[in-house]
Amino acid sequence: MGCDAAGVIAAIRSAAAVVDAHRDELVNLDREIGDADHGENLKRGFTAVVSKLDAAGDTPGAVLKVVASTLISTVGGAAGPLYGTAFLRAAAKLGTAVAVTPGSVVDALEAALEGVVARGKAEPGDKTMVDALTPAVAAARAAPGSVADVLRAAADAADQGARDTVPLVARKGRASYLGERSAGHMDPGARSTALLLRAFAEAAS
Amino acid sequence: MIGLVLVSHSARLAEGLAELAGQMAPDVRILPAGGLADGTLGTDFDAVSAAVDRAESGDGVALLYDLGSAKMTAELAVEMLGDPSRAVVVDAPFVEGAVAAAVAAQGGGDLDTVSRAAVAAGAVAPDAATGTETGTEFTLTNDVGLHARPAALLARTVAELDAEVTVRFGEKQANAASVLALMGLGAHGGDTVSVSATGPDAAEAVRRVDDLVARGFDE
């Protein structure tokens, strides 16, 4: 992809397609430890996002801001404000730059993580999307190379982070009501975070 | 006057609570923001933002919420306001907090006072065995006893003071900052309740309650 607004729009379209393809998987993960709506909610949100992309703006930050406000208004549940905050903070970090760079992508990912942590008050180990996003930011920060290289490192780390949520006992969100019974299942939010980062990485390659 | 926005996953819960709190605070703008546009359960960011706009009359808005993601939606709505200092998300029990906030707003409290009233509504009544305590007994001379309006008046009176006030009736006790807890005592006209208070303003709190009872709660 290019690193300008058109490239970011293409990456968001890829993410929407991935969310669509993995809807049932996310629903099933959420059925085990939540209320079974994560896949459908994200699909609804990204479908709405795609319908707005053509007029989303001419900078990466402007595009991500449209993504944020659309997700906030359409996803519902906890994922709406959390993903909305993530894209909003990333958009603010990118500002009015006309293209992203490896460095600005890392900064945007870090701002997204800080936003999610501030909004959801979750820490690593709580069995949430923070468990995918935290290692992703660290890996992105350590990865040399292009935007694609940075995003690939982030996606790889997020995949591992999501897998690492399986044995954890949830301490935040709906799954925390299950206590010990939440162990043995992958967190749906961590999984969707890993899926989105993988989609961005592949769009950038 | 401070406005209130009640953010709930359920439209009926938000509307019912707005009705309940509104009965004790007729002049306060209390906006329910519950459920999704299609009538299902969830929190709707656009509805919450619109409610904040309509609740604002120039002095600020306090938002109360039911469950976790309602809190996040409320916080996001505040973050995206032009001036986030005009609104605050209050960590308080939804029902008790909304009623206490409404009463405090009706009494002319500022945003900080209204928020603190909501938070205090969730406080557990102090243990009678601890602290220096002052108190006395009163026989309620008004007809309805500690029903909604007198309970709201009593809560508002003690909320202004630095004191933890407990009202006991028979086996039950209530934090006087909580309108619903006071109503839950079920004390009617002619019943005798005991009032005790701790804290720097304890004596003044008991004196003011004495005054309220003597005036028959202005009925």
Automatic annotation (TrEMBL), chain A:
Listed GO biological process terms: glycerol catabolic process
One Gene Ontology cellular component: cytosol
NCBIfam families: dha_L_ycgS
Domain DhaL stretches: 6-202
Name of this chain's protein: Dihydroxyacetone kinase
One function term, GO molecular function aspect: glycerone kinase activity
Keywords recorded for this protein, A-Z: Kinase, Transferase
Organism: Kibdelosporangium phytohabitans
Domain of life, source organism: Bacteria
TrEMBL record, chain B:
Source organism, top-level taxon: Bacteria
Ranges where the PTS EIIA type-4 domain occurs: 1-126
UniProt-recorded Gene Ontology molecular function terms: phosphoenolpyruvate-glycerone phosphotransferase activity
Record's GO cellular component terms: membrane
Keyword Transferase: yes
Reaction equation(s) it catalyzes: dihydroxyacetone + phosphoenolpyruvate = dihydroxyacetone phosphate + pyruvate
Domain HPr: start-end pairs: 133-219
Enzyme Commission (EC) number: 2.7.1.121
BP terms from Gene Ontology: glycerol catabolic process; phosphoenolpyruvate-dependent sugar phosphotransferase system
Alphabetical list of InterPro entries matching this protein: DhaM (IPR039643), DhaM_N (IPR012844), HPr-like (IPR000032), HPr-like_sf (IPR035895), PTS_EIIA_man-typ (IPR004701), PTS_EIIA_man-typ_sf (IPR036662), PTS_HPr_His_P_site (IPR001020)
This protein's UniProt keywords: Sugar transport, Transferase, Transport
Role summary: Component of the dihydroxyacetone kinase complex, which is responsible for the phosphoenolpyruvate (PEP)-dependent phosphorylation of dihydroxyacetone. DhaM serves as the phosphoryl donor. Is phosphorylated by phosphoenolpyruvate in an EI- and HPr-dependent reaction, and a phosphorelay system on histidine residues finally leads to phosphoryl transfer to DhaL and dihydroxyacetone.
Quaternary structure annotation from Swiss-Prot or TrEMBL: Homodimer. The dihydroxyacetone kinase complex is composed of a homodimer of DhaM, a homodimer of DhaK and the subunit DhaL.
Name the record gives this protein: Phosphocarrier protein HPr
Species of the source: Kibdelosporangium phytohabitans
